[in-house]
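Lesson 9: reading folded outputs for more than one chain in a single document. The general rule is that every protein is listed as its sequence immediately followed by its structure tokens, and records are never interleaved. Here is the first one.
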Amino acid sequence: MDNTSTRRSGPAAAMSRARFLRGAGALTTAFALGACGPATSRTKPGTSRVIALGYVKDTDAALAVGVTPIAMPRPSGLREPEPWTRAAIESLGGSPPEYLNLDTEPPIEHLAALRPDLILASGYYSIARFRDRLAQVAEVVLPVTGPNTDPWQDTALRIGRALGRAATAAQQVAETESAVRRARATYPRLAGRTFTYSSYTSTGGFWTKSSPDDLIARGLAAYGMNLAPAVARLPESEVRGMSPVSGELVDVLDADVTIVLTRSEEERRAYESGPLFAGLGSVRRGSYLPIGPADGNALAFPSVLSVRYAAGDVIPRLAAAIR
């Protein structure tokens, strides 16, 4: 879908309306805190014309309380939304969201033409650059500590309040937290186990998570797992929380379970055929878990829905890999 083609008069009319509302005090009240600062929502109950800009977290928070965004980020590396997001959209019925191409910058005029009541941007990585322009379109829910770094519970509750559905949001958060507790109780063998989480590169090496503060490490810590000490000692690169590992040093990826994000069968065959990777203790005993992009996103983009999906789908396979 082309998200940039609009009627010539639509964007201008919508922008004029937004500027009028802003002058009347109906838009976001924000106060500085860190890079972005939180938004104080004044959105009326029943708000339904919502645009989600943050990948996974913003879309899921709206869906969880029964609101299907009119537009959301184009699925990353997938032909359709993640399975839990797709299931929620289908269960709510109605028109599916339009996909937005946010690779460069948000199509501001097109967003204005959609006449949203609210823009969700708690997980939008470019919000610092575009927050003022977006605030001319509609009220914006901003991150507090930074894009995709606020606890998923806080984001879900804040968006629920902004949509006038605070009680439903609280219920959804409680259900997801309960799913995590059940999974931890069901798979006690995960407690105290070490893991590494990596992705293969075209140069024959890997990028691996190397910080216990990374979202994936924090998410697996909820089940008692710990990032393997060998990767935690690696120097960080310019990519926060990650370190490069050359093909010759792949032994650093050994752990109680070795997780590798695999984007294609061809890619999987490429690294699995390497003798050093095949020689890892975790690989030899069957404690190696390749996961696809959807499962990787469930861990990397924690939301009120993705965390629940991971607890019921990814965690059981992770436990089964422990030997």
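And here is the second record, again sequence then tokens.
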Amino acid sequence: MQIDSFQMELTCSPDSKEMWRNQGTRVLKCHLNFGHGDPTGSTLRAWQLGDVKLIDTRLTHISISRIREEEVGSLCLKLVRSGALFVESGEQVQRFRPGELVLVPDAPSIRQTFKEPSEVVSVTFSPRSLKERGFRFDARGYAVPDQQNADVRAIAGMIALVADQNGDTSEKMRRRQGGQLLELLDLLIESPLALSRRRSGEATLFRAKHFIAQNLRNPELNVSLIAAAVHASSSQLTRLFRADGQTLMRYVWDRRLALAAELLQQIDVTRLQMSEIAYRCGFSSPTHFSRAFKERYGVAPKKAAGASLLTSAHSASLAS
């Protein structure tokens, strides 16, 4: 079960440490161990960015490791904002200072330790979202991006900015932020041995759908153009979409009509002509748009203004 938001604070209460251990096991699927110092005042807050989870922690004298029995496969990008984070993998231990990033696989062999008061923001990418994008990470150890690279520093700044928003933005904004972080993930790793893409059918299908979503307004969008954009042959892409349940161009038309329905719910039709909506959604003419829309939804576009025509699946698809 996905929890949209979660927070806890370690107090001086006698049972506070035990509560943290229990919550760590139940919610975070991690072992939380306490060091010799006083961890009082440690805080943790987590919220969802679509398929991505952001965890803002202020910890001291605590170590964290993944529960071995739990399913692994996610990937965590950590930004140190203050103090220090020690990451241990086998006999290797590395200290990360403020402003530095580290990419850590969600594996029991990795231990993270906070020996002093430290703030660390963690962005966790789910196994499903990584698989869809064709990412495969070597779970035997962690990876360190090039901290001097301007792109890496920009991504660190973006993570800090999102963390400072405390999850108070709209659900739609958070989902888009998570999608942007996923798109930027491959910039963080220089070595192909640390993070590699595999040219799987699922990954190609995802990239094709993502390209379609970004280019729905292009009336020239066709099989050849989409195939070229994702470096696949037209026949291969056609087979992938058929295996997914519909033809490629039927998928394109469904997405265009769903976009039109969304626009009709959001705008004042008296201020926006039907012809403009048709062209915004990639239809060659208002007549073609009106006919296709009525066939799909059972009503003419003008009568659909303000109506709730989109299913949750359509909405999620358009937002991704």
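What the second record shows: The two ends are 20 Å apart (CA to CA).
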